[in-house]
Fold:
Amino acid sequence: MNLPDVTSFLPTETAPLLQDVDHPDADEQPPQSSFMSILQEPLTPLTKVLLVVALLFLLLSSVFIGLFAGAQHKLNTGHGGDSPVTVTSTVYGTATQTQTQTQTQTATSTSVSTSTVSVPGPVPTGPPEEPTCLSSDCIILSSSILSSLDISQDPCENFYDFANGGWLKTHPIPSDKGVYGNFEALAQQNRRVLQEILTSDAYVSPSTLTTSHDEQLMKKLRGLYASCMDEDKLDELGSEPLATVTYKIRRLLYGQTTTVDAKAARVLERKVTGLTAAIAYLHTRGIDGLFSADIEGDVGTDPNFMTLWFSQPELGLPSKEYYEEESFVDLYQEVLERLLVTLAEEEEYIGSREVSMPVSGEVVYQERLRVWPPWPWPPWGGDDDGDHDGDDDEPEPMDPEKAHKVAKDIIKFEKAIANASLDLDILFQDPIATYNPVPVDNLTAQLPQIDFPEYFAAFTPRNFPNTVILTSVTYPSSLSAILNETTAETLEGYLVTRAALALAPYLGYDTEAWKAVRSLEERLKGLKKGAVGDRAEFCTTNVEAALGFATGRYFVNETFAGDSKKKGTQIIKDIIETFKSSLGHVEWMDEESATAAAEKADAIRVKVGYPLSPDTENPASITAYYSRVYIDSEAFLENILSSNANEEYLTWQKLGKQRDPETWEMYPSTVNAYFNPPANEIVFPAGILQPPFFSRVWPGYMSYGSFGQVAAHELTHAFDSAGRLYNQQGKLEQWWTNATSEGFKERQDCIVKQYSEYTIDDGKGGKIHVNGNLTSGENIGDTGVIQAYRAWKAQYDSGLANGSEYLLPGLNFTREQLFFISFARGWARNIKTESAVARVRTDPHSPNQYRVDGTVFNIPEFATAFNCSAKAKLNPPTENRCLFW
Structure:
């Protein structure tokens, strides 16, 4: 790991951070020995004999052999008891780090010593050993920690490898995955709980499903799961469910305007008259294309007033860089060709099943997609009205040569969109640059190819927007120019393949569409060719993604009992209080800004476990939320589309209304957490409040080191490079003084430089640098672990008194060291090179190794805890650290 030289960027910190990092009970005195007082009295012959007998008896214990041998020597030589005690000790700071010291006797219970003692009598050499928890749970916990370590590594040089090397060796990446770490392992564990809920008879008994609403929810959940697990039916359906969608896209795109050669009876030219209808159809099913639209608060005026945000779309490849790499472009083009050919063949069969109504002449297709809103669309007619002459309006056969040309043009079109899009570091890290409110008429003027009133109507919102917020002021006009230069054939191919890339994974494994998309995924993620994971896990994952608030109700009942919510919330509140207390000691923050920051911390809404909207504890609330989801098809894809349409409908119902303060953006079983700047809230689902991140019975140093660092990370996001720009009400404004903002910017520049010097292998013999600008917000969030450490220290004495700081067996580490080990263990992750490259190009989070080593590099308390030398890689001079808090 290459560490940065940031000497020129960071001035010397003059305000020390948490100076006292000694063990809290290091100053406790040993109890006075009554035996010592006996030795100080005149010794009679009888007393001497009794002492010798007692000494011989005690020598049978191996623990006190050295101690009593030295004492007997002193007694035999007749020296008095006023001489100083000299102890030569071998002290183990860690299991791999030793040093020999000669010191005055101040040994603590966390040292292992070999001593030659000159004393007046057999007295204790330090505080009595603290009791160790020997329950089965403690032994298992201790074992899991020991097995995760690689003690051949020096923690002061490679802490990530030291804390996780054992885990990494014993948890290889499954062949069907590109990454596997503790987050993924816990998500897999949570899915096993969900799978049991979806399949066990215990969850359909009258005693469990106490209401008709529970019965409705379980019917939807199990119906969706069953349609996914029925692989025979999926194979029988083939690509038809996907072709039904792509066929409708083509019909909507072209409307009814065609030019027909009567002699050849073939379509010669098609005009794009239904682009708005086609893109609206995609978006109402959760499929991205051309642009994205979302509903969020107006952070410049009223953060709780839900407004339309217009932004750039996702790309077919993960990022702009991939469109410059020939090998990926060639593979992507091949995949697009395969999709175009197979879908055109399937659509010919679908088109042949259309019939004309005898009176109106309206073309009717037996639509199986029972989703909202109903199609044809718009409801006032136009797209599917009029006469049709036989098969003249059917898709033309897509031969390989034509597919090759269309696929090539699609990639050119996507590359133009990529070049017109904002760089991700601006999109993710600059909320001021991406906040550009304009009247809706301005958007229509910049992008006249889209009829926005018609587009809005597809989502049936209760309120139509007057204002839209652009993340890029240039993207709409750039997209318009691109569309003007794009042929109808290319645009048709783009929309069809966008749907295919998104939906093909829900088809049977034998379909050509599934195989084509899978080949691209294998290359991008480094998956083993042809390796397919457990079907039950795949189906459980998709049920959770589609109906997550419903599955969350039963997940919480199984995994989040007792006082888990209370203890998790207490840790969060402790960290908030510690953060507020630290603000007065932050050297770069003046008093005015510190006061405002404390007010923002007080105003943060803390959500733990599960949401109240829909209400996890009220099945009627959840059934109402999913009332528009129709899980009644044997085709898994159709059921997924129904769920997607429901989510889009509910999202657009927020438009023009005040934010519901009880809503969540994650499901209860999700292994993650988040900070939402406009809502000024931090959210922790029950899914992450599980081992190895949380347990309500863990000792404090582990609870604060593991879950505490997650909580501190989300809290710190409120004051990171982007979060600090939102005030206590979630509004974008300058609420720090200029001097404080400048001080923060210096440290932000420092951390950008630090992480920009970290690299990963590109798989071709070269290196790719981490994007320090893109990851700056998350890297600053990771610095919050120091607040978790301080919060643990602040409650240590009370925790020790109530027994929550108990020791674990077999661990030769201090509590301080175990705090940092607990922090690092959460980030253990094996990752394929291809997946690592994709993430470093697109993910605002740094690679996990640097989330550990890069973080402790900036924490002096870590180096103190592990007795790191001044020359150690992770113990740099103060002026080289990026110190925020």
Q: What stands out?
A: DSSP finds 33 helices and 17 strands in the chain. The longest strand covers residues 302-311. Confidence is low (pLDDT under 50) at residues 1-44, 46-128, 257-269, 355-393. The domain at 240-506 is CATH 1.10.1380.10 (Neutral endopeptidase; domain 2).
